[in-house]
Amino acid sequence: MLDFLGGSAGLDLSVQVIVLLAFAGFAAGWVDAVVGGGGLIQLPALLLIPGISPVQALATNKVGSIMGTSVSAFTYYRRVHPDMRTALPMALAALLAAIGGARAAILLPAEALKPIVVVVLIGVGIYTAVRPKLGEQSALRWEGRKHVGIALLWGTIIGFYDGILGPGTGSFLVIALVGGLGYAFLPATAIAKVVNLATNLGALILFVPTGAVVWGVGLLIGITNIFGAYVGARMAVARGSRFVRIAFLCVVSVLIVRLIWDIATGN
């Protein structure tokens, strides 16, 4: 069992690490389903595996994430009925941009972007906190082609970011849909799951041929991610946009602290 999880990568996994990965996968699936940002939990857990490289951790993280996101996207689709006229074009733009971002990551170090992302996240957090009515109800800013055009633009920008760096992609998608397009938090999260599914797929399109994915570990965290995603999506649908807004602010706060720590420690 332990040899299977380590796979051809030759990683030595203890029972304690396997339990930690399973728990991290569930927690990441829950957080990701509610508002995005599950990578904050799952990726650091993967990096605790002795001998795993950062590229292997990133690639394996995407396997777990895409499994959980598929379930949460389906759950939202059945219960919230997200606007697919927005979700599908945005997802296609994000997928292509994520591939481009992953290629650009080879040339531009991710560390160069982290200070910019911290500033943007602080602005997003303040903007959301001082506007308590933001995202309570959908009030779309544009219609027709202009609406789709703005959605394509946001999908391209955030998809590229996901390819080149990644942390907080789901949260950026939600705030773009809420603050930029005028959706309430719950339908915005539903659309974001469809788009995030595409960005994860875009990253895997590049990672899988390189052999960077540790499939045994990826399937382990993917299975527990699925359970977390299902619970999280059901809870978000039941409790509505106010609950999602509070969860969003919590995730953004943690993400800011995490990125500042990474900058300070040189990680």
TrEMBL record:
Family named by the database record: Belongs to the 4-toluene sulfonate uptake permease (TSUP) (TC 2.A.102) family.
Keyword Glycoprotein appears in the UniProt entry: no
Cellular compartments annotated: Cell membrane
Protein's recorded name: Probable membrane transporter protein
Annotated TM spans: 13-35, 87-106, 112-130, 151-184, 204-231, 243-261
Cross-referenced InterPro entries: TM_pro_TauE-like, TSUP
Pfam families noted in UniProt: TauE
Recorded topology in the membrane: Multi-pass membrane protein
Organism: Populibacterium corticicola
Keyword hit for Zinc: no
Keywords associated with the record: Cell membrane, Membrane, Transmembrane, Transmembrane helix, Transport
